[in-house]
Amino acid sequence: VQPVESGGGLVQPGDSLRLSCLVSGGTFTNYVMGWFRQAPGKERGTVGVINNEGDTTSYADTMKGRCTISRNNAKSTLYLQMINLKPDDTAVYYCAARAESNPAQLYFRLGDYDSWGQGTQVTVSS
Asked: Is the CB of residue 106 less than 8 Å from the CB of residue 52?
């Protein structure tokens, strides 16, 4: 499958932003999805993940409480809603897919995902 992110941009501290990831080339409900980010000079890390049915999520500590991952399986689209953004949230945000039809299964590590988007830049600055 091919994920394509959108929705990034320049925002001010305290703002909210929603990223989208449209997935094509496969049956969306057969994939666990994740959001990841890479800040300048840092390694790519996990923001959070969601199971194939969209009813189970898990978040990294970095943005826990300030972000929500959801998916619309009818639209083959993954979302990342972020609130109260901080300058440290400045990064390229990526979505990724991993084939998995078991709704009880989640994957949290970058290496578990094999289909990646090109990323969307989010810059938080006043």
From this structure: no
